[in-house]
Amino acid sequence: MSALTLYLPQDSVVVAMGADAVADALQVAAATRGVALELRRTSSRGLFWLEPLLEVEVAGVRHGLAAVQAADADSVLTALLAAGAPMHPKAIGPVAEIPQLKRQQRQIFSRAGLTRPVSLDDYQAHGGGRGLQRARTLSAAAVVEEVLQSGLRGRGGAAFPAGIKWRTVQQAQSASKYVVCNADEGDSGTFADRMVMEGDPLLLIEGMKIAALAVGATQGYIYVRSEYPQAVATLRAAIAAAEAAGWLGEDASGQTFHLEVRVGAGAYICGEETAMLESIEGKRGTVRAKPPIPALAGLFGQPTLVHNVLSFAAVPGILADGAATYQAMGMGRSRGTLPFQLAGNVRFGGLYELAFGPTLHELVNELGGGTRSGRPVKAAQVGGPLGAWVPLSDFDLPLDYEAFAARQAMLGHGGVVVADDSVNLGQMARFAMAFCAEESCGKCTPCRIGSTRGVEVIDRILHKQDTHANVALLHDLCDTLLHGSLCALGGMTPYPVQSALRHFPQDFGLTPEEAQP
Ligand SMILES: Cc1cc2nc3c(=O)[nH]c(=O)nc-3n(C[C@H](O)[C@H](O)[C@H](O)COP(=O)(O)O)c2cc1C
Ligand code: SF4
């Protein structure tokens, strides 16, 4: 009996595209031919336009077959058994040579598409575990210093220097401390956190374990949104595997770190760190006033290190290769890489991990191939539902926190949603206000009441009612939201609204002069 090993991703996005049916059909086709098929279900490479992407190794090189469906199983197996390299209409050659993959600088996603998510053997064979190994040889203060020197900034949105947060938690005096991973991932068009959790969960566990050793925490939580059931299941399986291997629980050196998954109930505001802590404590997810900051009084009032999935996932690489290697990538004060998530109306949508610095034009038009509809790109919303709409005239802006902030925009979690010229940004501004009204936790007046009034004011502008007075009122309202809100939900809703008004006044039925504050 001949034998064949194939690789097929099992991330939820690929399963939604029919990967399980492809797997079943391949098994049936192999059995019919008397072929012993080993089908390894890996993570996804994030090249979504090619999924389900089936791979076969030929002379040490992975070759791909793109957009494989169950109906292709017979012809694919015939081709694979007949030739060395796959000769099939869906064959696309060596996967590593795909321009959109070759151009990337994958650090966090270095194992994407290569390994089976919960396999410790695969993880270690592809470089996993080295960060923790090195961290164990250093003092806690030296680990914190390494994170500080790397220049890593939080990837959840605010881009606060990670090392400073670590130092604050480490120096806090308390009998118990916590490490909490914010995996609520509520931003539109974002999926990188989910890809880590479903595809390389041991990386997140390793990052959290290093953090726990450094700051002196014995308990950790991963707060995952309820819409991510596969991430929850994979994380739980990975935690069990890590416990069995002695990475979690009480380890050989006598250090204890327990990790648990907590599932959110589905509210955007539960991604805000203090609302998330309330939710983990079993309360309703409303925002806490700061100070005190969570680093000093967080979960159950104890010092707590809160980070996004991508922040923790960057840590093993920083420890393994040294802060200087990470620091060498990027531009300005934006060091290292950011996994950009390219979504919306774009031809080659997916995950692009790049060092900070390339332009939006390179990302959207060169790598992303422009719109999927074939119509001209009009704008991209960068950084989630509270991010600004960036017009084509700003597509030469480098992807860097400060460069975006200087243009009243933000990178946030790296989500980029592309819109073509058929999208009306007046309607999108209305949607931003309606989103804020829907998701407001209700604690402060500008956001709770202002967002509802904002929808009404935009409606009046769109219906040409008393335009001049209503434009002035909208700017005034945005100013109140920006400066008077307790958290960034209300505080940033003006970004998509005012950027739409500034760059696309015609979509509100206004001239550029009429749209001015
Ligand atoms: C309304 C709102 C929603 C947020 N949602 C998320 C989220 O889903 N995931 C996340 O990591 N951070 C989110 N944040 C940012 C967190 O409050 C916090 O800054 C972050 O988790 C800290 O991690 P970092 O240092 O790794 O960025 C949100 C903030 C606000 C105001
Ligand atoms: S800005 Fe909105 S979400 Fe934030 S605290 Fe105020 S009411 Fe709650």
Automatic annotation (TrEMBL):
Domain NADH-ubiquinone oxidoreductase 51kDa subunit iron-sulphur binding: 426-471
Protein's name in the database: Formate dehydrogenase
Annotated Gene3D superfamilies: 3.10.20.600, 6.10.250.1450, NADH-ubiquinone oxidoreductase 51kDa subunit, NADH-ubiquinone oxidoreductase 51kDa subunit, iron-sulphur binding domain
Gene Ontology MF, one: FMN binding
Family of the protein in this entry: Belongs to the complex I 51 kDa subunit family.
Organismal lineage: Bacteria, Pseudomonadati, Pseudomonadota, Betaproteobacteria, Neisseriales
Keywords associated with the record: 4Fe-4S, Iron, Iron-sulfur, Metal-binding
PROSITE patterns per UniProt: COMPLEX1_51K_1 (PS00644), COMPLEX1_51K_2 (PS00645)
Domain of life of the native organism: Bacteria
PANTHER family: NADH-QUINONE OXIDOREDUCTASE SUBUNIT F
Transmembrane segments: none
Pfam families cross-referenced by the UniProt entry: Complex1_51K (PF01512), NADH_4Fe-4S (PF10589)
Cofactor: FMN; [4Fe-4S] cluster
